From TrEMBL:
Protein name as annotated: Lysosomal acid lipase
Coiled-coil features, chain-numbered ranges: none
Gene Ontology MF, one: hydrolase activity
Stretches assigned to the Partial AB-hydrolase lipase domain: 35-97
Record lineage: Eukaryota, Metazoa, Chordata, Craniata, Vertebrata
Keywords (A to Z) from UniProt: Glycoprotein, Hydrolase, Lipid degradation, Lipid metabolism, Signal
Species for this entry: Varanus komodoensis
The UniProt record lists the keyword Signal: yes
Family label: Belongs to the AB hydrolase superfamily. Lipase family.
């Protein structure tokens, strides 16, 4: 009942807004930029890298080798690896202004910043043998992300930088796969100088959100409701709709 009331209040707020719904505001150009464009638009250098996991997934990674405040500094910098959360991608670390995005802040603090993307997100939708249109492509969970994705990205970063260890910063799901990987692969954990867990997730025992109740439903029913492939896909259509709705004057007042 409570979610329905919240949605109803939001709708009433839109209807009675002093600014007409048809009034549009300029759409932020960042809404249509990829991660490299987000980085370079703020004046920072960007590199694109790809990593292939042992089970064939092709992952996209981004690098900010130095910041605006330390350009041309050839001294070996501490390496920081940023890993996004659930239903996210690496752009979440560089979406805000430079003084409010961790990726840029760390680059300006003289760190070599690497940004990862796990299998299946909008930036890592390729496989050596499978297509995103095949059910087999989506037959994974955070267990596979921990077992295959994280080691592949960490080993690649250390090989490229010539360093023995790196700092790991994970958010939400990024902490979950790290807890799994570092606890089951001690040799991988030894390559982590320090692990920073932002909004860490290890268990759902005390979650009170109504969405958790869905998990008690039979798996066959859940697959019928949500499908067996991508959940809440991020594509050009969703991007276009969200940018249009968020550009409405009434929405911007919320």
């Amino acid at each position: 009942m409570r979610p329905f009331i919240v949605v109803l209040c939001l709708c009433l707020g839109l209807v009675h807004s002093r600014e007409p719904m048809r009034t549009k505001r300029a759409v932020d150009p960042d809404a249509f930029r990829n991660i490299s464009e987000l980085i370079t638009s703020k004046g920072y250098p960007a590199e694109e890298h790809t990593v292939v996991t042992r089970d064939g997934y092709i992952l996209s990674m981004s690098r900010i080798p130095f910041g605006i405040k330390n350009q041309g500094n050839s001294v070996m910098k501490p390496v920081v690896f940023l890993q996004h959360g659930f239903l996210g991608d690496g752009s979440q670390w560089v979406t805000n202004l430079a003084n409010n995005s961790l990726g840029f802040i760390l680059a300006d603090a003289n760190h070599d910043v690497w940004i990862g993307n796990t299998r299946g997100n909008i930036l890592s939708r390729s496989h050596q043998h499978l297509s995103v249109d095949q059910d087999e492509f989506w037959a994974f969970s955070f267990d596979e992300m921990a077992k295959f994705d994280l080691p592949a990205m960490i080993h690649y970063i250390l090989e490229k930088t010539g360093q023995q260890q790196l700092y790991y910063v994970g958010h939400s799901q990024g902490t979950t796969i790290a807890f799994i990987a570092f606890s089951t692969m001690p040799e991988l954990a030894q390559k982590i100088k320090m692990f920073f867990a932002l909004a860490p997730v290890t268990r759902l025992d005390h979650a009170k959100t109504p969405a958790v109740r869905l998990f008690v439903l039979p798996e066959r029913l859940l697959r019928f409701i949500f499908g067996k492939r991508e959940f809440l896909p991020q594509n050009w259509l969703v991007q276009r709709i969200s940018s249009t709705v968020c550009g409405l004057g009434a929405v911007s007042t919320l």
